[in-house]
Amino acid sequence: xxxxxxxxxxxxxxxxxxxxxxxxxxxxxxxxxxxxxxxxxxxxxxxxxxxxxxxxxxxxxxxxxxxxxxxxxxxxxxxxxxxxxxxxxxxxxxxxxxxxxxxxxxxxxxxxxxx
Amino acid sequence: xxxxxxxxxxxxxxxxxxxxxxxxxxxxxxxxxxxxxxxxxxxxxxxxxxxxxxxxxxxxxxxxxxxxxxxxxxxxxxxxxxxxxxxxxxxxxxxxxxxxxxxxxxxxxxxxxxxxxxxxxxxxxxxxxxxxxxxxxxx
Lengths: 115, 139
Fold this sequence. Notes:
heterodimer, A: alpha+beta, Arc Repressor Mutant, subunit A, 5 helices, 6 strands, 36% helix, B: alpha+beta, three-stranded antiparallel beta sheet, 6 helices, 39% helix, elongated, disordered C terminus
């Protein structure tokens, strides 16, 4: 996934709610969908996108009383900054896990210019 | 239950229609203006330059209708402005736009999104300082 897609994902309405929901407590998809008013299918889709981009991690797998297994997700993103200065877009992420892009400014313009 | 209440979204619609005034946006909406692919391209295209919708559309590969629509949105929130209406060789009027946005900052921290826009006029617009939707989200 390219950086510009990552930064767009961050400002997606559902993705933002999911990241807020999972900031401190590991939560199940169903739980997030109910509490944060996200349609269940969209919730699954966004969570998978966020997981692929490394924003979410499955922290725990629990078994419900009915015997179904359920994944609990936890946000991996501590902070993100998007800056637009002098006609240049750049982003910086800070993940709780060790990652190469942690704290590094990434310029987006190269990816943004269609021409 | 609806923790976001969608109030922020309705408010913008209300504020947009009446005679002018700065529309209030949620930090999410403000940051979406920057991370939307077309809006970002338009902001780059109009940065310290005067350019028409047609040119932006061709140079940055934005479908013309979407280009006009995004330009309008950006114009409404005051991030770009029409600086000239020139006459083309065919006798058509063409609006030239330029970006009013100098710097923009978007922070996501502790589960809270905040945005700050600095305009060419020196004006600063902050979003998210008093957005109570997020407090509700953190229950």
